[in-house]
Specification:
The chain is α+β, with helices and mostly antiparallel strands and about 525 residues long. The chain folds into 3 domains: about 190 residues; about 60 residues, no CATH class; about 160 residues, Heat Shock Protein 90, CATH 3.30.565.10. Helices cover about 50% and strands about 15% of the residues. The protein has 13 helices and 12 strands. The strands form 3 sheets. The protein has a 5-stranded antiparallel β-sheet. Strands 7-9-10-12-11 form a 5-stranded mixed β-sheet. A two-stranded antiparallel ribbon has the order 6-8. About 30% of the residues are buried. This is Sensor protein. It comes from Paraburkholderia lacunae. It is found in: Cell inner membrane; Membrane.
Length: about 525
């Protein structure tokens, strides 16, 4: 299965985001333009209707509508989409302007049904209801019906042919809220106002100012199409540019990958070096280099450990082989053969302790190493360990002393092993007549167990390295007799202090050494739980 490209995925995501932004912005612009156009057209309609009403109110009678028709229709001159119709007191059309392009086209008699006539009578009643010169509602209705029938027969438009519009009384102010929408005979959108105007003789004429919105619809449709084309082109361009930019921006990652491919088993000291790394990738490069540093350090430590282990195991094997070859060179006595077997047994014990310690270190480094934590009296355990080593200390003419008091929580067996290794190491390097002090003290959130001994101070450059595996300050120093050490001690295998550090790491503590002319001190620091 082909893996998807990160650059292509980001480019598509950026393109989708751009499309959403373009859609929102385009919709906002389209609606804003639509509102602006409607607002401007509505204002033109209202102003034209107001001006036409003022002119009509100056007329003496309805006959003046035709005489001053040019003045009335002048309010819509100059705009081919604007039209005006003036209906007389009887509801029939008296004057019309620019009706061919608007709804205000006279309807044929065949297109007007009986219900239109009835509706026209009702509308005509609204027109003349406020006329004081009418005798009664019945005579008005009769006159309206006659006018409607006459207009139907002659093909002249009447208010009966108009859609149901809200007529604005002559005394009411004409506002944009009074504008209505309807459809023309050819389906064209129309917006207009139907308003009454009182003539000076008291008669009421009706003015219909309308605008054909087809050109506006066409303008908005073209504007919408251009927005869609521009949006689609913008999205494609954004996706292409974003893909190229992302590819360029990801170039340092490709350089990091190429640099990392140069790291091999034989070149673990190689580090990732990328020129002009972006700020966001500096942490990644630093982390990778730190990881390579740890891998290199671990590999070097493993190599040294393997070499040291092979060297230390070769020594007892060589001793056993050499002693056996010497013994077989000529006949020996029974005592000499027994001495040879005892020497070989001592070397076997040394190998056994070395293998056991190596296995312990291997198990201790496993994440699932099990510890049995418990609380105990540190000073009491130090006393027991000192009693156990008392015979060995007497043979070395060294005295042991336990001081202090503290309680701590740790794995008791591991604690005993760590202190035993330190004590065995101290006995080994303490001169005859010297004293070794084991001390336990608690302060704050820590418990410090110290094993100090007199003797030659350790140089500063060795204080940290003495905890490395198989590291010895003076390899020529001999070890204690194997028969005098406990199973947990290490003799001279070079792993005793390494085991101590591993045990302290398992407990989340630390171990360090201090040395001066007075004494050498190994300090175990446990955290209180």
């Amino acid at each position: 299965m082909r893996r998807r490209s990160l650059a292509a995925t980001l480019a598509f995501a950026f393109g989708a985001t751009t499309l959403a932004v373009f859609a929102l912005v385009g919709s906002f612009l389209y609606l804003a333009l639509d509102r602006q156009i409607k607002a401007q057209d509505d204002l033109d309609i209202v102003l034209a209707a107001r001006h036409a009403r003022r002119l009509a109110q100056e007329l003496e009678t309805s006959k003046g509508i035709l005489e001053h028709g040019d003045r009335l229709t002048s309010t819509v001159f100059g705009d081919a989409a604007m039209s005006m119709e003036v209906f007389g007191p009887g509801g029939h059309q008296v004057l019309g302007h620019n009706l061919a392009n608007t709804f205000a086209t006279p309807l044929a008699a065949s297109e007007t049904n009986a219900s239109s006539a009835t509706s026209g009578a009702s509308e005509t009643h609204e027109i003349v209801a406020g006329d004081p010169n009418e005798a009664s509602e019945a005579s008005v209705a009769s006159e309206a019906s006659e006018a409607s029938e006459s207009s139907e027969a002659s093909g002249v438009a009447t208010t009966a042919a108009l859609p149901r519009l809200t007529r604005i009384p002559a005394s009411a102010r004409i506002t944009e809220a009074d504008i209505a929408d309807w459809s023309g005979r050819n389906g064209a959108p129309i917006r207009g106002i139907l308003a009454d105007a009182s003539l000076r003789d008291g008669e009421v004429a009706s003015l219909l100012v309308a605008r054909n919105m087809s050109d506006r619809w066409l303008l908005l449709d073209r504007y919408r199409d251009k927005l869609q084309i521009a949006g689609a082109a913008g999205v494609l361009l954004a996706m292409l540019l974003s893909y190229l930019l992302i590819r360029t921006a990801m170039r340092p990652l490709r350089e990091i990958a190429a640099s990392a491919s140069n790291v091999t088993v034989n070149r673990l000291n190689t580090r990732i070096a990328v020129a002009r790394v972006p700020h966001e990738l500096e942490a990644l490069v630093a982390s990778l280099n730190a990881m390579l540093e740890r891998v290199d350090h671990g590999f070097q430590s493993l190599s040294r450990f393997t070499a040291d282990l092979a060297h230390d195991m070769r020594t007892p094997l060589s001793n056993m082989r050499g002693a056996a070859e010497v013994a077989l060179a000529r006949p020996r006595s029974t005592d000499e053969y027994e001495a040879l077997l005892a020497s070989n047994l001592e070397e076997c014990d040394r190998l056994s302790r070395m293998i056991e310690n190596v296995l312990f270190l291997a198990r201790a480094e496993h994440p699932q190493f099990v510890k049995h934590m418990r609380e105990f009296d540190a000073a009491q355990e130090l006393t027991r360990i000192a009693e156990y080593f008392e015979g060995i200390a007497d043979d070395a003419h060294v005295s042991l002393r336990v001081t202090g008091a503290a309680r701590l929580t740790a794995d008791l067996e591991l604690f005993r092993r760590a202190v035993s290794n330190l004590l065995a190491n101290a006995i080994r390097y303490t001169p005859q007549g010297g004293e070794i002090v084991l001390d336990a003290a608690g302060s704050g959130g820590e418990v410090r167990v110290t094993v100090s001994n007199q003797g030659q101070p350790i140089a500063r450059e060795h204080l940290e390295r003495i905890f490395d595996r198989f590291y010895r300050i003076d390899p020529s120093r001999s070890s204690l007799p194997s028969s005098g050490l406990s199973q947990g001690s290490t003799g001279s295998t070079g792993l005793g202090l390494a085991i101590v550090r591993t045990i302290m790491e398992l407990h989340g503590g630390s171990v360090h050494a201090e040395s001066d002319a007075r004494s050498t001190r190994f300090i175990l620091t446990f955290r209180r739980v």
